[in-house]
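Record type: monomer structure entry
Structure origin: computed from sequence
Chain ID: A
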Amino acid sequence: MKQTYLLLSTIIFFFFACKQEEKKQMEIFGWNILTDHTPTALHTLESSANYKVNQLQLSYEICHELRDIKHQWNRNIVNNLTEKAHETGINEVLVWDHALYDLKYYPERFTINGKINLDKRDFWEWIIEDYEKMLNKIPDIDGIVLTLNNTETKVENQHSEVLNTPEEKLATFVDSLAALIVKKRNLKLYLRYPVHSEKEVETLLSFLEQIKTPGIKFIANSLPGNFLINQQYSDWVEKIPIPVLIDFDCVHVNEGQGIVASIFTDLHLKLWKSYQAMPNVAGFSLRTDRMGKSSILDRPSEINLFTVYAALQNPEIETDSVILKFLYKNYDSLAVPYFYDAFKLAPEIIMSSFYTLGINTSEQSEINFSYQPSFNHKITLGESEDTRIEIGHGVNQSFRYWSDIVNHLAPAEYKNPENGILSSLPEVDAGNWLQPEERMDTTYLDYILTEKKYALNQAFEAISKVNMAKPYCNNSRTFNRIYHTFNRTLLTAKLRKAYAQVYYANRIWSRGEEFQNEKLASLIKDGLTEIQITSEDIKKYRRKGPTGQYNWAEDAEIAMNLVQKIKNSDIWQDISEEL
């Protein structure tokens, strides 16, 4: 009996010890400040205490590359924020860097045929000395976040007769810098390598295995590549052989950057639940702004980062519970049911206005229905087949991604085998899924307008719910932030519906006389009128929201450029004659 009791006690102790170890592993709760607007950055630091942040990354406008701190402005901001972060209780402050700057940064004696000669020993001595000088200017930081791709001079493309593979070059570069950063200066080193293809995933996993320096960690984007939300989480992250932080774009660079209702509770909940279950994931880093005066803190989109913390505390929590917890924490209880309805509508509004049949028709949120990179993102995540995707938003149809959606929405020149989408996507070329001619037609125009009208109807419904909450809000400033966020969302849905109507109808009209008729002419003319009216409403709108990378009001100017382009063309005369 005594032996049974001891065995049982041992099992129970082992169970709880494992649980504690599992809980200890999730140890880093980081935020990332991109803006060098001091009041915004300081407010972020003040708010961080409410979320028990223990890591702070300083990037983009503050320090995108370590050489930025050679400028006194950047250096002062880094040192100031580092000091204040430490005073706040954040024990790990990191600055961003990129592996290898533009080629002209390095002395010519280290180059050969337009490449850096990695076999020259004095190159490595020079770069270590350069890093020493830069790090001495920011003595209180705790580490570096080193991005190894998305750089002007890629490490793996440089000259070497000793290092035979891209993986060897990357691993050698990391270990060489780590000798200074980690071993000599006792700083943390985090690596970034945002992937855009299966080949890059293979390269990443291979070179990480070859790194010899212990203690290095990796930062992986919560969504592949450029954070487009029509993509899935990266299951290969579990294969990374070192501890991983998950980088969440809580601001939504491609979906309105919090100036509109960039609210994606369900998305962030599902992502963090997936990553949290991976044994190598040690925490997260949350982006809180998108430069300038932008910030999601104290705004509706703060729910995106709140969601990650809610799932951290309770991995079983559901979307509805997260929304209600956030709303009851921040708003008057009697107003919550109405705000809840608006928050629930938000993702569908954004997905059917900023996206068109599943493709992001913007450039870092700025309206752009012909942004070429938007048309080849899905394949870069490993889609080697012309798979079907479901589009709701009132359309409620199943489409083949390449031969249906991309083939119709992409301009003809983007489908040219020589210099368009196909030049970098051989599997699409082999499948013969795209034809290099204009394929936009009235069938797809109807699908698109159905989707845009759906976004508009949902936006009207959301703002009506917000207005219903007004009598129950004691703080007018708090109410106004929600109201103007959703009202800007409504104006955005109006503008993008009108823009889509003109842009795609004009492409059909341009195909020739057999496609031209009175109905199409009316669509173009009515759309132009809608653009002019809505653009004027946007220009006059008194609460345009914070300006960061995305300037919401500039969408009106972009839309008016389309109006002028049509009116200055022969098409305008043809349309007028048709009517």
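Annotation 1: Residues 2-330 form a domain with the TIM Barrel fold (CATH 3.20.20.80).
Annotation 2: Residues 1 and 7 are 10 Å apart (CA to CA).
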